[in-house]
Amino acid sequence: MTHIAQHTGSAAAPQAIVSFVQALVSSRPQALSEWLATHRLDAALAAWLHGQGMAPFVFYRLRQDQLQAAVSSAVLAQLQHAYYLAASRAALRARELTTVLQALAAHGVVPVLFKGAVLAHTVYPNYACRPMSDLDLWLSDAEIEVAIHVLAQIGYVQRFKPARPAALQALHEGEFKFYGPTPDTGLIELHRGVFAGQWLHRTTRARSSETCERLAPVVIAGQPAKMLSPEDALLQLALHLAVNHQFSYPWVRGLVDIALLARQQPVDWVLAAERARAWRVATPTWLALDLALSIVGLSEARPALARLAPSPLRRWVLHLFVNPGTLLQRRNITTGPLRFLFLLAMVDRPLDAGRLLGRAVWPEEAWLAARYGTGGLRVRARHTFNAMRGRL
Known about the structure:
The chain is α+β, with helices and mostly antiparallel strands. It has helices at 2-7, 14-25, 31-38, 43-51, 55-64, 73-105, 116-122, 141-153, 166-171, 198-203, 230-244, 252-264, 269-278, 282-296, 302-308, 312-321, 324-328, 337-345, 350-361, 365-372, 377-388, and strands at residues 112-113, 134-138, 157-159, 175-179, 187-191, 216-220, 223-227. The longest helix has 33 residues, at 73-105.
């Protein structure tokens, strides 16, 4: 807790925030009422909850536990507004997910749902409690081609960012983005895997293919789908938060996702730790679980933490970049040199850090061709020049 007092800029007391979040996600039903009996959920805390994307979940819990009277009418109105706005959006997303899954099923495609698309419907008490900006579906290479055709048939339009062409996305289990045809539809992302990105593919052994035999059937939005095993889902959430977002979004809510998953779908912590070590993702997994212990009170993770902890020096360095205080204040390190330095610090082996640094300046020929459409010395020289100037 020492980092919390030093780094949070919230108007609400840091210790009160942490104790509230722990009460919110506690497996003890009375924990939230006990907190409200000795603390005040004031406007500052409500604003913090809104900024973290957790206000809808809080209102739902207050209403379900009949605790509205413990909160002032003004604060309750703020939380209620956030909930009903989230509920209306969630209803549209659920209907959209039903439509997409039905269309895919008609062509024999049953995707793996992960992140918000499955968390909202399986570990949260109501899907309105877990806002999401998109729907993530993992499919095989053959299914991707079918899904692209199916989504086009029902009006979705595919788009790519110039810096992330299709060939580059395919190289590192990236996503294909499809935008809905009407205002009540949103973003659908088709993924070639659940461990996307150059960092994971250049420095670790985390590969989606290793999770296939552990997939489980699930019914989401009234339609058949598949989901990751609890241990694989835990690692995916931890790595996505640590590596893909550098703990800069969704901050504490990302830790709440991990805690609710672990408590709704019990995790074998020793197995999860062994898998993280085998995949060479022990360091980012440790950091995510260490923060979950500090902020969310995920004490169940201690067996994994003991097996994953890096050296005291590495822990100190990592906490310079990310600590409970930076998550409470929603610090963003996704731009600028801090991002790359943090990613280097999270690599399990020094050799892999060197490889990551080298490939950023001098990438593989296949990467150059995927990124720029062609290779050769001229393309490589331009890429290296831009990389050295920090323009990539």
